[in-house]
User: Fold this.
Amino acid sequence: MTRSERNSSILNPQSSIPSHGRPRPIGIFDSGVGGLTVFREVSRALPRQPLVYLGDCARVPYGTKSPSTVVRYSLEAARHLMTYDISMLVVACNTATAAALPKLKETLSIPVIGVVEPGARAAVDRTSGVVGVIATEGTVKSKAYTNAIKALDPDVEVIESAAPLFVPLAEEGWANTHVAREVAEIYLEPLIDHGIDTLVLGCTHYPILRGTIEQVVGNAVHIVDSAETTAHTVREALGVTRGVDDPEYHFFVTDAEERFRRIAGEFLEHEIENLELVAL
Assistant:
């Protein structure tokens, strides 16, 4: 397929999921299981909305990849989801949002929502002046959160710190282990010592470890979960929708489908049906 043909397929999708007059689904993608935090919050905010989720588990993590590679991966994920006639794309990955959101908005003919700006707005609303951000190496290097928060309030101090080991801990289902607690203490104690009053979970994998993170930072630090804030943004952007009483959820992964089924089932607290292995 030529580049022009690929672009045409993105802009003019043909649905592979029969609609039968049902509302078009919202597409959500992430590098792995982390985006399920966004999926869960969107399903709660829009309980009658069909959703299609893609986890690029074959290439997780995105956080250590170059920006150009993340842009390419993101366009490939978007192209796949567009074949299901989605009405909106949610980039449920902070690294992909930081690197690829402008290109996705330029390329796609539907609304595209990332996770950085909603998280930044929530942080500014809650902070007393010092915000900590934990994220992947790619997101931290991009300074996406610092720039977004400073654009809203230049007086807020922002400290960004990479916490890359949280991603494999979430992917392996080790969120509530003593290993996760020890890693969290190493990552978070310098931020606590700096006096942060608000902590942004700047990777959608991190809310899976929220209980462990809260134990380490204590009650005095406000936690900003970008999954929750993004879901509110999606609901506002979607506007009035008729929805359905029994919305269908479709899941796609590029690798490790049984591990995804297990972790997703535990996290979402229901059996994962309609799960398919795909190649991008």
